[in-house]
Amino acid sequence: MNTVLLLVASNLFMTTAWYWHLKSHSLPLLGIIAISWLIALPEYCLAVPANRLGHIAFGGTYTAPQLKILQEGIALLVFLGFTLAVLKEVPRWTDIAGMGLIVAGLAVSLGARA
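RE: above sequence
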């Protein structure tokens, strides 16, 4: 569970770093890049321990591919909340369908624990 919580926190930072500037039209691109890097730094400080704690080589329950797919599923859910709450955009049904297929891939990957 620590792995999942760290990945959720990590994705909150990364989603903010990647997309917050879509609401801001006043900053120059270099300023946006610099601020995004500062926001992304805590993301790395959370993602690296999450992957280390979660990996089977360090006593976790996930393989590296499972960790990556888990991270992508969490990233989609975090992004969906961000786009609705912050950007005030409603995804199209095709966007939701595409996200659903990725989440289905997550279920397939994590369901196969062999």
